[in-house]
Amino acid sequence: MRAKLPVSVLVVIHTPALEVLLLERAARPGFWQSVTGSLARPDEPLAAAAAREVREETGFEPAVDRLERWPLAYTFEIYPEWRARFAPGTVYNTEHVFSLELPAPRAPVLAPDEHRAWRWLDWREAAQCCFSWSNRDAIRLLGARTNARR
Predict the structure, then answer these.
(1) Which whole-number Å values give the CA distances from 130 to 25, 115, 124, in the listed order?
(2) How many structural domains is the chain composed of?
(3) Is 120 within the bounds of a domain?
(4) pLDDT tens, 9-61?
(5) 47-58: string of b/e by CB count within 10 Å (b at 16+)?
(6) Which residues touch 50 (CB under 8 Å, ≥6 apart)?
(7) What is the pTM assigned to this prediction?
(8) 129 and 121 in contact (C-beta within 8 Å)?
(9) Which of 8, 22, 14, 23 is nearest to 115 (CA)?
(10) How far is the C-alpha of 12 from the C-alpha of 15, rounded, in Å?
(11) Residue 88: which domain range?
């Protein structure tokens, strides 16, 4: 198995009413998150990786131009139990944030090896459910950005 790259995307999928889609990890019941994943190769454009991850994890077919790339990236320590997926000595990952607005909630088609359940929640509740601080913060920023525009 090829080592994962320590560069990833986070895609917060939401509606205009700020309902946010969360997915429960298959290998970690109780761990809820937005769409996330590593680049497939070093030269994969971030927007292409975000669109690919949305397709793989939800079955949704987003046009790359429908994804909004935020001027935001988080660098964080990789959980020790997940470091074996990366090249030896890799400790940190950089996650680039995107959002995708859908007109209304709809049922995703989950990749069963990655996720076991899904739910749409108000952004405040969704933020509270995320196990990842970067995902939680991105959802809170979504609420703040949207409220500032209104």
Answers:
(1) 11, 14, 11
(2) 1
(3) yes
(4) 999 999 999 999 999 999 889 999 999 999 999 999 999 999 999 999 999 99
(5) bebbbbbbeebb
(6) 9, 11, 35, 62, 64, 67, 69, 96, 98, 100
(7) 0.94
(8) yes
(9) 23
(10) 10
(11) 7-149
